[in-house]
Amino acid sequence: MDKNSAKKKGIHLLELLLKRKSGFLSGAEMSAALGITRAALWKRINALRGKGFVIEASKGKGYKLVSTPDLSAEEIKTSVKGTLGKEVIFLRRVNSTNDLAMKLAEKGAPEGTVVIADSQRKGKGRLGRKWHSPPNANIYMSVILKPNILPKDATLLTLVSAVSCASALKELTGVDVRIKWPNDLVVSDKKLGGILLEMRSEPDRILFAVIGIGINVNMKLTDFPADIRTFATSIFKETRKKHKRTTLVAGILNEMDGKLKILKKTPEVILNEWRRLSSTLGRNVKVTSGKETFIGLAVDIDEEGRLILKTPDGSVRTISSGDLTVLREHTAVQ
């Protein structure tokens, strides 16, 4: 197989090693599959080793992949099934993955490009809040999308992202992740993660959108700042074991890829999934939206993802965005 054939078929060194996890793969076989010389193969193997991949070499047997790093752009790209994550930009440290993704999107980065960092200097959440972003622990990533939807429907991108995260995390870790309107991932009302949507648009179309996803994965309770320990949690705290971030990232991207396809054809399916995973509906809440504050029963979301609130006087409010707090039972509104 020549170099062009190998490139056309998308064959990569890591893919070969991952497929033969249980045994050795000869250098001759790998060189032929990749369409490169043995010397070039050796360089690529050493490059992977430099990124934290442990690859055993044995004379007469070839090469064997022993272990992979906790977070790796190369493994993410070989693990995704759709368009999301085929291009991954991985940085050890960045101010904000969303800020960088927005700049890249403005310069024409393709849809599905993922920016991921091991830590952030200025991680951010909604309403300008700081997102605690220490290294070697969590997921901080941003996905560039170019959706064919109207700007008024942009909230649906937040909903589909939340559904994708909650579904993937439950499948991969067993944790019962729920969604607090409008953008939080929670476990037993404690915050596990959040989603931040930013975009550039014209009156009749979205030019591009960036979905920022932050998830507490391997943090211990003592790793959290003291002021958020009482209402934050992590996958580690819920399961008492560490989880490989690459596996979780790839799972989320694959789930999101599929859900976005469903959103294009049957958005009601995504809305129903959000309702099923919601920790908000059917509960009494307080929502601060701009300078206004509303108290009432969260009864539903509409086709644009807006919260429908029944207030104590029996009137109904439709709220497009806001800061939501679940109220104690004794403040119940019927």
What is the topological layout?
Blueprint: H1 3-8, H2 13-19, H3 27-34, H4 38-50, E1 54-58, E2 62-67, H5 73-79, E3 88-94, H6 97-106, E4 114-120, E5 139-145, H7 155-173, E6 178-180, E7 184-187, E8 190-202, E9 205-215, H8 235-239, H9 245-265, H10 267-277, E10 284-289, E11 292-301, E12 307-310, E13 316-319, E14 323-326
Helix pairs in contact: 5-9, 7-9, 7-10, 9-10
Describe this structure in words.
With 334 residues, the protein is α+β, with helices and mostly antiparallel strands. It has three domains: 3-67, Arc Repressor Mutant, subunit A; 73-277, BirA Bifunctional Protein, domain 2, CATH 3.30.930.10; 284-331, SH3 type barrels (Roll), CATH 2.30.30. 32% of the residues lie in helices and 27% in strands. It contains ten helices and 14 strands. The protein has helices spanning 3-8, 13-19, 27-34, 38-50, 73-79, 97-106, 155-173, 235-239, 245-265, 267-277; strands at residues 54-58, 62-67, 88-94, 114-120, 139-145, 178-180, 184-187, 190-202, 205-215, 284-289, 292-301, 307-310, 316-319, 323-326. It has a seven-stranded mixed beta sheet with strand order 3-4-5-9-8-7-6, with helices on both faces. A five-stranded antiparallel beta sheet has the order 13-12-11-10-14, with no helix packed on it. Helix 7 crosses helix 9. The N and C termini lie far apart (70 Å). The model is unreliable at 1-10 and 330-334 (pLDDT under 50).
